[in-house]
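Translate structure to sequence.
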């Protein structure tokens, strides 16, 4: 009995550990394919083009928008982010379950296009903890951290649109819950 490929979408406010959790989930021998997003933001230390993101100029990004080359795209914190449509389509045709790491608006848009997508929201244990994580990350100044924290309330308002909510109180607990969700969804009928 064959089953259809599944699209798992993970979203989280900035600083909730979404990238770390996705990397650990992908290493978890679940056979998930990762859809690499495109962005205009500068690379952070340790990031590689084609692995973490496709880093492009604003003009290159706009060219993809005009070609209708994105499944979803948005401008966040002054930078553009998008999910290349071709990558997702090719992976689904090959029967691969896919992991997307995108913002809340993008997740809702993709859910409209792929109604059977599984939306997973990563929440912080508390706003205080989130603020500490953002400071510790050392990639943003105080003004940027303040801006990100203001956006958190808006992002948290989307949680009811998600199928699952995982509180990232510890990386190992959160990864374990994510693995359980993937396994359970693969067993779901229909």
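Result:
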């Amino acid at each position: 009995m064959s089953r259809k490929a599944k699209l798992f979408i993970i979203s989280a406010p900035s600083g909730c550990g979404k990238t770390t959790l996705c990397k650990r989930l992908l290493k978890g021998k679940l056979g998930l394919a990762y859809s690499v997003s495109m962005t205009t933001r500068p690379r952070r230390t340790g990031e590689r083009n084609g692995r973490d993101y496709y880093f492009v100029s604003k003009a290159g990004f706009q060219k993809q928008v005009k070609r209708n080359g994105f499944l979803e795209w948005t401008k966040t914190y002054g930078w553009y982010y998008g999910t290349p449509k071709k990558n997702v389509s090719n992976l689904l045709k090959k029967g691969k379950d896919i992991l997307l790491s995108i913002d809340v608006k993008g997740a809702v848009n993709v859910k409209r296009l792929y109604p059977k997508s599984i939306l997973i929201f990563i929440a912080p244990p508390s706003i205080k903890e989130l603020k500490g994580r953002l400071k510790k990350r050392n990639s943003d100044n105080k003004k940027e951290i303040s801006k990100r924290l203001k956006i958190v309330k808006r992002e948290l308002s989307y949680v009811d649109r998600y199928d699952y909510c995982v509180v990232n109180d510890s990386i190992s607990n959160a990864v374990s819950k994510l693995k359980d969700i993937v396994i359970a969804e693969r067993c779901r009928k229909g």
